Amino acid sequence: MKATAEYATANIAVWWDMKDCPIPEGYEAGQVRSSLEVAFKEQGYSGPVSITAYGDQTQTPDHILKGLLSTGVSVAHTKSESTSYFMYEDLVKWRRLNPPPATMMIISDQVGDKFTWDLVRLQQRTLYKLFLAYLVKPEYMVLSISEQWCWKKLLSSSPPAAGVQAGAKCYCKSCNYDSEYLNHFKKHLSSYSHSREEYVNPTDHKLVRYTEDWGRNYKATPEFATAKIQVWWDLFDCPIPQGYDARQVRPSIEAAVKELGYYGPVSITSYGDHKHTPLQALQALSSTGVDIAHTVSG
Question: What PANTHER family does its record include (predicted)?
Fold first, then answer.
């Protein structure tokens, strides 16, 4: 899907799990940024790109770290089991500081299993463009994805390595440490204080669900207050209660959405095996503008 005007030059932030999606053997680390930017520009996205690579950086060869940092890719040290935790924490922090229009990209095989539940709700409240890259394609995806790539295919174009870019940093998520200098970073990772911190205060590997205490129903924002409302109603799962006047279905729904500030026109379609729906109920629904669709169960 090509970028719309408001997203064409907006910020793009990338969070990359290096364990799930490693740099292929023989591939130059300095080409990662170029490969991503080429893919973005092919879809019309040319805004500034920030990239952070997460992983156990004690296991990452120096030439890869240097190649990433020299092209403006920040690196974050995490224990393997806590990588998703820190990636998601940083993603949520970034959202707070960067309102839409903006684009987020997650490079990981964990999106379907770990990120989806909470991120779906965040996206429902504040919508960003969302890109995804993976080594193994998810079996299912609830999130609405604007663009997605196979990691190996994304890197296959092999453009020239990006020029030297300043601004990249090295982070140790275990110790809340950062540095602009790779030698300082490596010295920190090999220090006793770092080893002790990881041993004494291990990071919880379970993602924080930032929306867990949110209510289920949200007040309408101005752009949705008078927008159209479409209702698809499964009579098999949610039948009209015995003794309930079917003429009350529409006003009940309209009253509920108006309590949340939604005043737009409401269209309702009821689906069911209407050979078994009493004629009185069908007439009552129809008289209040509820459309009736006959289907069979299953």
Answer: LIMKAIN B LKAP (PTHR14379), NYN DOMAIN-CONTAINING PROTEIN (PTHR14379:SF84)
Q: Tokens standing for 222?
A: 């101005």
Residue type, 172: C
**Entry pTM:** 0.75
Phi, psi dihedral angles at 119 (to 5 degrees): -65, -35
106 touches 87 (CB < 8 A): yes
More confident residue, 148 or 167: 148
List beta partners, residue 165: 71
Least Cα distance to 145 among 123, 135, 124, 130 occurs for 130
DSSP 180-216: S-HHHHHHHHTSHHHHHHHHHSPPP-SPP-TTTTS-S
Contact between residue 149 and residue 53 where contact means Cβ atoms under 8 Å apart: no
Two tokens, residue 216: 């289920």
According to DSSP, residue 46 is labeled -
**Straight-line distance from the first to the last Cα atom of the chain, in angstroms, rounded to the nearest whole number:** 34
For 81, list phi and psi in degrees, rounded to 5: -75, -10
User: From the centroid of its chain, how far is CA 215?
Assistant: 20
**The token pair that represents 239 in the structure block:** 């039948």
Cβ proximity of 73 and 168 under 8 Å: yes
Helix, strand, coil percent values for the chain (each to nearest 5): 35, 20, 45
Place 297 in a pLDDT band, splitting at 50, 70 and 90.
confident
Dump pLDDT digits (tens) for 88-132: 999 999 999 999 999 999 999 999 888 988 999 899 888 899 999
Tell me the per-residue pLDDT of 272-283, one tens digit each, with 9 for 90 and over.
999 989 999 999
Q: Which CATH architecture has domain 5-200?
A: 3-Layer(aba) Sandwich (3.40)
Burial 177-210 (b: 16+ CB within 10 A, else e): beeeebeebbebbeeeebeebbeeeebeeebeeb
pLDDT at 217: 76
Rounded Cα distance between 176 and 197, Å, is 10
